Amino acid sequence: MEFCQDQNGSRFIQQRLEVANDDEKVFIMNEILPDINQLRIDIFGNYVVQKLFDFGTDEMIQKVKQTIVGEVFSLSKHMYGCRVVQKALEIVSDEDLLELLSELHGNMLPCIHDQNGNHVIQKYIEVVNKKTSLNEKKGNMNMALRFKQETKVVLDCVTEDIRALACHPYGCRVFQRILEHFTEERKDEVLNCIKTFHQDLLDDQYGNYVIQHVLRYGREIDRDSILKIVVKNSLLHLSRQKFASNVVEKLLKFGNDKHRKAIVREMLKQVQTNGADGSKDESTVVLMMVRDAYANYVVQTTLDVVPEGEEKKLLYEELNNNASLLVSPNNTYDHVNESHFE
Fold first, then answer.
1. 108-153 pLDDT per residue, tens
2. 222 CB-near residues (< 8 Å, 6+ apart)
3. Do 120 and 82 touch, CB atoms closer than 8 A?
4. Which of these, 154, 168, 147, 26, lies nearest to 97 by C-alpha position?
5. How far apart (Å, rounded) are the C-alpha atoms in residues 21 and 196?
6. First-to-last CA distance in the chain?
7. Packing angle between helix 58-68 and helix 45-55, nearest 10 degrees?
8. What is the C-alpha radius of gyration for the chain, rounded to an integer number of angstroms?
9. I need a labelling partner for 148 at 20 to 30 A (CA). Which of 159, 167, 311, 335 fits?
10. Crossing angle, helix 94-102 and helix 58-68, to 10 degrees?
11. In whole angstroms, what is the distance from residue 241 CA to residue 206 CA?
């Protein structure tokens, strides 16, 4: 126990568990088990408990699992205990996993809002979808259905207030894992709910990460919806925003050629500008974007991904015709990549 709670001692025990025979593992287990509740929440001891899950015998894993039954929620909110819970969710048998997950059913939202608990819910999402797929491949359709029902527990929770949760520093991560791991059927349910709030989330400091994942893992209709918002709300305006500019870049990367060409057409539009002497002048959107600290990255991404065609030709012509202005010594915007204009 003393070794387990010491940094070097903990590392030594972990390394021994990786190569120990069953007799040695049982010896270590017998030393640890009486005080395992203390080790689960210890800065160094929790790693030893995790190793018992990784390298313990089936009987040992069952004993360690039994020590967290009834305490999954409280451990999930602990800085170190949450790591033990996550490891348990990865290792235990299907039946034991369902038992542990059931303790989170009524505590899903408090876990999502918690800085430690949200990691457990992310692991929850990952393992239930993995287990659903594995059991379907093995033909264990009853068990696959039980795990599929676990995804509905998550969905029922997150769809109660999509906007608030997607704009939450931890809630946004849960949506990201859902979009990465859920089956197409379940993912469609979430995407349909998120679609209502595309505009609200697009420039939110946390919601923008959800929209970026929608662009990467979502459907064409979702990308079409976000493109419409970008056009309606001004490409120039959104590209100048810290968070929205990242969304525009992801639309360029994960959208199709139609989306990319549409953005180039927006870049080539003329807009009115105010001169230093108060006079009115006109400039293309792209020339104003290149001079902006955030929007210039959108231009660089566009040049990387836009397909060959009339739009790309016109864009290069506009940039080349104004290259002397864009790379002049007086230009203080050092984010511009001059190589694009050569």
1. 999 999 999 999 999 999 999 999 999 999 999 999 999 999 999 9
2. 191, 194, 195, 198, 214, 215
3. yes
4. 147
5. 56
6. 66
7. 140
8. 26
9. 167
10. 10
11. 14
